[in-house]
Structure formats: structure tokens, C-alpha cells
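task queued by scheduler; priority normal; single chain, no ligands, no partner chains; default sampling; output format set to C-alpha cells
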Amino acid sequence: MLASFAHHLTVVRNHCAHHGRVWNRKLSLKMQIPMKKPSGLSAQFNQEQDRRIYNTLTMLACLMGAISPATNWRQRLKALIQATPQIAVADMGFPAGWEQMAIWQEKAD
């Protein structure tokens, strides 16, 4: 699972490093979505938009919470999205009501 995400993240990182757009890109490599552990994480992903950046950001939110529990990464991402209303979050694969999902809350694990 981790190897799949690391490979996927490498592709996303390369797009970013070479000034490619990722916000509305259909990514060429999809990652494996964890289905069992951690409990409840699979429900946080958008299975219907599995090649969009939302799932990548969701996995990053999970890992950031595990590696650095005091991080404010989720809040900074939400602030960035709110500061750019001209970009439709649906184009990034964000499901309706994503901000209320457990992974995007302050105390998410």
C-alpha cells in the first residue's frame, strides 16, 4: 500500500516540479486505496474520481496526521482552497461536503 502511494506521489511531485498543473489533471497513475486500515479511512476517499488530486491530498492528510499530529497542514490547504474560489474543487475530485468529512477535521487521525 505504501509503495503504491509513494510511486503515485512521485508522479504528482514530478508534475509539480516541472510546473505542470495538477488541480484539474486526470492523473496517469492511481494509487491503491487502503480498504481496511486505518479504520474508516477508505470512506474518506472519492472512489468515483480515483485519478484526481483529491485522493492524493486525502492520503497526505492521513500521513501528515500520523507523522506530525500537531500539523496545521489541513487548515492551510482549506485556506488555500478558500482563497482561490475561481478553481472548482469538483474538478480536483473533491466530493460534495468534503470539509465535513472526518479526515478534514482538526482532530482527524
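post-processing summary
- The chain has one domain: 2-104.
- The mean pLDDT is 87.
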